[in-house]
Design a protein that fits this description.
The chain has 124 residues and is α+β, with helices and mostly antiparallel strands. It contains five helices and three strands; from the N terminus they run αβαββααα. It is 43% helix and 15% strand. Strands 1-3-2 form a three-stranded antiparallel sheet, with helices on one face. It is elongated, with a radius of gyration of 20 Å.
Length: 124
């Protein structure tokens, strides 16, 4: 009887660890603040420089960063930290003020006048 219980326990452990495997081609989206094509380049570069990010495209119009990642190597929070480190806010992590202040004046997405100017121009 002890052997049967042991075998059942081992099978359950094996099945639960199988279910927890990380996806090597996981899709996810992150909302990232920005206003122009310079922002797009900076955001995508920060994401792609994150180990485990295979694909990254940010939309100026929707502010969504679409990603394909290897969950064995990275996670959403790590990517958000790397994007914040180059001056862009995400829903989860805000860029530090001194980093934000270093980005080009054209990219000051926290300034409503800059945002409005980009809307008039249709983005850059």
């Amino acid at each position: 009887m002890k052997k049967v219980i042991l075998i059942v326990c081992l099978l359950m452990i094996g099945l639960s660890s199988e279910a927890q495997k990380k996806n090597k081609n996981a899709k996810l989206s992150i909302e990232v603040d920005g206003v122009c094509m310079m922002c797009k380049k900076r955001i995508e570069k920060a994401a792609l420089n994150t180990k485990g990010v295979k694909f990254a495209v940010w939309s100026v119009k929707t502010h969504l960063l679409s990603l394909i990642i290897d969950e064995r190597k990275t996670d959403k929070k790590t990517i958000q930290k790397n994007i914040a480190a180059v001056g862009h806010d995400t829903k989860g992590i805000k860029a530090k003020d001194h980093v934000y202040n270093e980005i080009d004046p054209c990219c000051k997405y926290r300034d409503q006048k800059v945002v409005d100017d980009h809307k008039k121009e249709g983005g850059r």
